[in-house]
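Re: weekly structure request thread

Next one in the queue (197 aa):
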Amino acid sequence: MAKTNANDIRFAPHGRILMATANTAMPTLPAPANAFDETTALSGFTDLGYVSEEGAEIVPSLATNDIPVWQSAAAATTVITGAGLTVAFRLMQFDADSTALFFGGTWKKNEGAAGDPVTSTLTLPSSPDLITKALIVMWGDSKRVAALYIPRAQVSEREGFTLTRTDPNALSMTFKALDANGKLGDLVVSGDMTAAA
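Done, posted below.
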């Protein structure tokens, strides 16, 4: 039986990135017809809005250590020393959720006198706390949906943004997955992926 199947070539013309309190359960995957409609809520999760056209980069990683022995030029065995999963993306909206993730901290509305303009302050602490969130990266097309669910993730890297006349303030960040009872996350897709090849 032939293995080649053009239907298994996947693209991500649509996508969403959503966030929730750490360990919020993965909701039911929405149907492809309305999965990428921003009015389609995923229970417990907040949509982070526009993402740059590059989409998201998902990188699973594995660190190993070879065990050499006297009797062989090749390693006798290999042990796993670390496992990881990261997701990188650029948020295009400069709003309360995206800026709190990027800078750390919490927004506070400044209470001024009546008639004063409304302002808000996000204080950047010199000793910031690491904020742990649940994250969903969802992508697909009109026929199929896939979602990477990470129960516990933290921002591990941020890239600077330049203030210019014509470019938006894109907030680039990388989330790393933390252990969640023996797993880093779940990949959930529409359709049956268990059929034997």
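Residues 61 and 84 are 5 Å apart (CA to CA). The mean pLDDT is 93.
Next request, please.
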